[in-house]
Write a structure and sequence with these properties.
heterodimer; A: alpha+beta; Glutaredoxin; Glutathione S-transferase Yfyf (Class Pi), Chain A, domain 2; 2 domains; 9 helices; about 55% helix; B: alpha+beta; Glutathione_S-Trfase_N (chain B); EC 2.5.1.18 (chain B); glutathione transferase (chain B); transferase (chain B); Thioredoxin-like_sf (chain B)
Chain lengths: ~220, ~220
Amino acid sequence: MSGKPKLHYFNGRGRMESIRWLLAAAGVEFEECFLETKDDLTKLQKDGSLLFQQVPMVEIDGMKMVQTRAIGNYISAKYNLYGKDLKERALIDMYVEGIIDLNELLMSHTFQPADKKEQHFATLVDKATNRYFPVFEKVLKDHGQDFLVGNRFSRADVQLLETLLMAEECKPDILAKFPLLQSFKARISNVPTIKKFLQPGSQRKPPIQEKDIPRVMKIFH
Amino acid sequence: MSGKPRLTYFNGRGRMEPVRWLLAVADVEFEEVFLETKEQYEKLIKDGVLMFQQVPLVEIDGMKMVQTRAILSYIAGKYNLYGKDLKERALIDMYVEGITDLMQMILMFPFSPPEAKEKNLDSIKDRATNRYFPVFEKVLKQHGQDFLVGNKFSWADVQLIEAILAVEEKVPAVLSGFPQLQAFKKRISNMPTVKKFLQPGSARKPPPDERYTENVLKVLMT
């Protein structure tokens, strides 16, 4: 047993990507076990390894953790990415939950049927630029600090960067009206652990391609 | 200013109900503002009070908190319902997230089209009986304690009792194969603050009806 956290998921972003980001940001090495067929998932379910029969599952500190948020919370607290007190935690949680909502919109775009894609794209861009980005642009403007909460690198910064990059993959100029988010993006991308994660050869996963969707769906359905 | 937390939401369960449960069980009095018109909602947005232009909103300890999970985590942390250390917290989080997935099905149910309702009800019954309730039945059986985590009342117990009662409203005999959960339900229902919340006249909201769903759609639809 290596002692490193072990991630169980399919070889793609999905719901595990934000966990990979957090571990990488915290400088924690981890192993990955990829589900490739339905049998791989069934085996884990039969083993009793999956509390609610679902992945993500992360083996960490003697636990078989499931539920993305629970895993994210544990890693953030363990590696001091969760603020210094209850109130900073509350702010981080609010920001992260908003970011997760935007993330879900971005992630679901590739899975939209052809006749819904255009409408979905319009919704996505509208929500990103009118509901979510303005919040974080304002937060950064109001306090003028490098990080979102408590003048210190936290989970909120990691998750925001992840989402900004994903949004740009959808629409390259999506940050055009958000100068502070652009400088945030540059700044956080240069945090050493993040910089490393953004380089080729890291465990960061590429966006899922349409041709891969049937194969992934087969694992889960 | 009263100092009491103030909840802004529709006059019904929805996403605010777990917050009402948690505050009530922690014996914290709170006030409620009910959204009845689109104009009210638009004013809240214009006033900049809703961080992501959404409710629930809970004004507590000088913060205007949004996002249900953020609100619940804060309350649980503040009122010692979140375990004694990181590992107990992890267990509570896992249990709460699983239960939330089940509650999400119940939350969306009133808004599903009539032709989908039977299938959705079957899904709720199936998931409760085959995925979620067996987990908690086993947890209680294995440690033989009164509460899910750390031999101490926590957010996980509150979330579970809420879910059990909500599923029972739709599937009355759902606990028939779960003796531990039946005993758990009885035991937790008898705790003084829970008992009080379950009595008529408390802040607990009734199951959603057509008036509720119409109100929500009227306020939120552009």
